[in-house]
């Protein structure tokens, strides 16, 4: 077990025992690093693990708080990604394919640096793909991924990135932290999905993590309202 996992387990125990109250603020990262005799980087990974589990959340400039609904999220800790290429979690008969719109590299924005825990000099891939299920348009995605994670090619993007990372690069994916919102269709939605101006669109913003707590994917997926209602039932498995 990694040290950050042991620390996240200890913090979780303190939350469950009531030492850290629901809705309350955790000690800052410097204090936690001192309490656990470790580095801030390790504490940050421990906090990220608890965010994935839905136990805590962070507010920029304010700190890390215990979620008021954390007990409801304890049954959903992590989500192992081990599904085969081109299938879905609950519908193995559905074939997922991709049309690659963009594969490029650049330096990360401040938001991407924070989400991926990287520096301003760490290059990232910019990936855009339209996704199809059984040949029918399902949505499109914009993904930012540090180039140090793996070498990504156009051929990789036509299939499953997750399968490539786990089976070819021998990485272990532990889970994702997602935020789901609704918005009106953008110009990009019109171009990528054929959505009409101001159509409702479901958006899933996601940060995914490797086994050691390192973020490897910062993505935003858009789904037209016609397919948005079944997004929760179909896992594109990237």
Characterize the structure shown.
- By secondary structure, the chain is of the alpha+beta class.
- It is built from nine helices and eight strands.
- Helix 1 crosses helix 3 (40-52) and helix 2 (29-35) crosses helix 3.
- The longest helix has 14 residues, at 3-16.
- The two termini are 27 Å apart.
- Residues 75-91 have low confidence and may be disordered.
How much is the radius of gyration in Å? 19 Å
User: How is the largest sheet built, in terms of strand order?
Assistant: 3-4-5-8-7-6
Low-confidence segments, ≥5 residues, pLDDT <50?
75-91
Give, in order, the helices and strands.
HHHEEHEHEEHHEHEEH
Strand content: 25-35%
| Residues in helix, % | 25-40%
Helix/strand-derived category reads alpha+beta
The tally of helices reads: 9
- The average pLDDT value, as a whole number, equals 84
Query: What profile does the largest beta sheet have?
Result: 6 strands, antiparallel
- Cα end-to-end separation: 27 Å
Shape: globular
Number of strands: 8
Keywords, separated by commas or semicolons:
globular, two-stranded antiparallel ribbon, 9 helices, alpha+beta, 238 residues, 6-stranded antiparallel sheet
Lay out the secondary structure:
Elements (H helix, E strand, L loop, with lengths): L2 H14 L12 H7 L4 H13 L3 E4 L3 E4 L3 H4 L22 E11 L3 H7 L7 E10 L2 E11 L7 H5 L2 H8 L4 E12 L2 H7 L6 E11 L4 E10 H4 L10
């Amino acid at each position: 077990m990694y040290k950050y996992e042991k620390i996240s387990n200890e913090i979780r125990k303190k939350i469950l025992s009531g030492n850290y109250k629901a809705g309350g603020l955790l000690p800052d990262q410097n204090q936690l690093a001192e309490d656990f005799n470790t580095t801030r980087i390790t504490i940050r990974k421990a906090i990220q693990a608890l965010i994935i589990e839905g136990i805590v959340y962070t507010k920029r400039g304010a700190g890390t708080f215990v979620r008021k609904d954390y007990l409801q999220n304890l049954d959903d800790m992590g989500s192992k990604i081990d599904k085969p290429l081109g299938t879905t979690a609950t519908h193995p008969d559905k074939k997922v394919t991709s049309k690659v719109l963009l594969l490029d590299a650049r330096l990360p924005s401040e938001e991407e640096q924070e989400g991926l825990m990287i520096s301003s000099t760490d290059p990232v891939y910019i990936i855009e793909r339209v996704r199809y299920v059984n040949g029918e348009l399902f949505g499109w995605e914009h993904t930012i991924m540090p180039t140090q994670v793996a070498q990504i090619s156009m051929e990789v993007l036509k299939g499953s990135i997750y399968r490539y990372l786990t089976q070819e690069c021998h990485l272990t994916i532990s889970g994702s932290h997602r935020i789901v919102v609704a918005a009106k269709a953008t110009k990009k939605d019109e171009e990528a999905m054929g959505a009409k101006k101001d159509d409702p669109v479901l958006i899933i913003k996601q940060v995914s993590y490797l086994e050691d707590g390192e973020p490897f994917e910062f993505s935003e997926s858009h789904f037209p309202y016609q397919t948005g209602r079944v997004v929760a039932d179909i896992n594109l498995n990237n």
